[in-house]
Write a structure and sequence with these properties.
Blueprint: H1 3-43, H2 46-73, H3 76-100, H4 105-133, H5 139-164, H6 170-188, H7 211-223, H8 226-256, H9 261-284, H10 291-308, H11 311-314, H12 319-351, H13 357-369, H14 372-385, H15 388-406, H16 409-419, H17 423-431
Helix pairs in contact: 1-2, 1-5, 1-6, 2-4, 2-13, 2-14, 3-4, 3-6, 4-13, 5-9, 5-12, 7-17, 8-13, 8-14, 8-15, 9-12, 10-12, 10-15
Membrane topology: Multi-pass membrane protein
Pfam families: MFS_1
Protein name: Permease
């Protein structure tokens, strides 16, 4: 295929990739919103809500390395489509169950586990394929459009979910997710995942290794790249402390402050609006020269916003003022997330060799979420026995302290110096 046709095909991928993400994420967000409200209204317990989060996080942590090995060994297109179809079957299975029986927590938890496993394979396969779908000059645009699609879905889905919740039944929400997941699989089937890929599955040495040897090789590759090590350890501890907000945010607003469902949906949508605005900005601008610095500042900002969540608990506000406060906080929170994630994702896309992408991204995902199940259990328990301000202020302080230590100036300078070396030299060091 000549360069002109490849460029046109890559342009097609930019939009089909975005459309697939928009549709599937919209369905998933509507489902997550409805299920979260259903669990909290049914049980009134932060622990039950945290248990569903654990059912999402724990399988991703355990299955991640295996998913990376599969993504580096077999066709990534087949993996992505198969994972999407498994999600479709799982959600339609829960739909049928809800029509014949009363929807129960065990059924929800089992479905969450299946969706989590399928999502892991889909996420690792898709992330590993970005450099195969689009040309190098448009990687940041692809990542930003991907984030914009997720944000657009997140803007609409909580608002729609908040309005529909109570007006329609849970099976209606399940049907939305099932149809969206199926449409996503159909769109993905039209894409060429190896258009720009620098790999050959049939000749890959990964296929000749045992799974454990292959995973070990991927870990060795990471250990020889300081920038990847810095990102892993930062993500590991930051995600642990962010568990305080993940568990507590919905619990505080719904149970403690009595925010009604439609208003809570708009608050969630404000976060997505912030993500959408900044993602559009990143899609149009050139890459950051020092992505780790941008990420460090963004994480510190998240820590500050986490502490501000407690303000209406300490200083009583009228309902309208409380709604406006949390909507503004969510908008700022959403604006910070792309500034943390996108520059680092583009950096890693260019830094990691194609034959290692699956294993590296799966290890990153696994390590980033390794402490999250413990975080969900710990904070779910703490919110039932301690005042929320103590938990959020303490987590905010530890979050800022952690990023200050792990991304101290000397680490950023060393990582930047290493990143300026040719990618081939880094790869040779890793596999030697």
């Amino acid at each position: 295929m000549n360069d002109s046709l490849k460029f046109k095909r890559a342009t097609y991928h930019l939009w089909t990739f975005t459309a697939s993400k928009l549709i599937s994420t919209f369905g998933a967000q509507v489902y997550a919103f409805a299920i979260s409200f259903y669990i909290l209204k049914m049980t009134g317990s932060a622990s039950s809500f945290a248990a569903n989060l654990i059912c999402n996080i724990l399988p991703r942590t355990l299955i991640g390395p295996f998913a990376g090995y599969i993504a580096d060994t077999y066709s990534r297109k087949v993996i992505v489509i198969a994972a999407q179809l498994v999600s479709t079957v799982a959600i339609f299975g829960l739909l049928l169950y809800s029509l014949f029986y009363t929807l129960s927590l065990p059924a929800i938890y089992i479905t969450t586990v299946i969706l989590s496993i399928a999502s892991t394979f889909s996420s690792v396969g898709f992330t590993s394929s970005i450099t195969g779908l689009v040309d190098e000059k448009r990687i940041q645009k692809a990542m930003s459009l991907n984030q914009m699609a997720a944000s657009m879905a997140a803007v609409a889905s909580p608002a729609i979910g908040g309005v529909l919740y109570g007006a329609v039944s849970i099976p209606f929400f399940l049907a939305i997710y099932g149809v969206a997941s199926l449409l996503g699989a159909i769109i993905e089937s039209t894409m060429n995942f190896s258009l720009f890929a620098n790999r050959n599955v049939e000749k890959s040495t990964v296929a000749k290794e045992s799974m454990f040897a292959s995973i070990k090789d991927g870990i060795s590759y990471i250990r020889l790249q300081p920038i990847l090590m810095a990102i892993i350890w930062t993500a590991l501890l930051i995600n642990f402390f962010m568990g305080a907000l993940q568990v507590g945010y919905s619990f505080l607003l719904i149970e403690k402050l009595k925010i009604i469902s439609s208003h809570f949906g708009f608050i969630e949508g404000a976060m997505a609006a912030g993500m959408l605005f900044i993602s559009g900005y990143l899609a149009a601008r050139k890459e950051f020269q020092s992505p780790l610095i941008i990420s460090k500042r963004g994480i510190a900002g998240l820590g500050i916003l986490m502490s501000l969540v407690t303000l209406p608990l300490l200083v009583p506000l009228p309902y309208g003022g409380m709604f406006a406060f949390y909507a503004s906080l969510s908008l700022l929170n959403g604006a910070l997330l792309p500034l943390i994630n996108t520059p680092l994702q583009v950096l890693m896309m260019k830094l990691i060799d194609d034959d290692y992408k699956g294993r590296v991204f799966s290890v990153l995902e696994t390590m980033a979420m390794a402490l999250m199940p413990a975080s969900m259990i710990l904070f779910g328990f703490l919110y039932d026995v301690l005042p929320a301000p103590w938990i959020l202020f303490g987590s905010s302080f530890l979050l800022i302290l952690t990023v200050s230590i792990l991304m101290r100036p000397s680490v950023i300078r060393n990582a930047t110096t290493f990143d300026q070396k040719p990618v081939n030299e880094q790869t040779n060091r890793a596999i030697s």
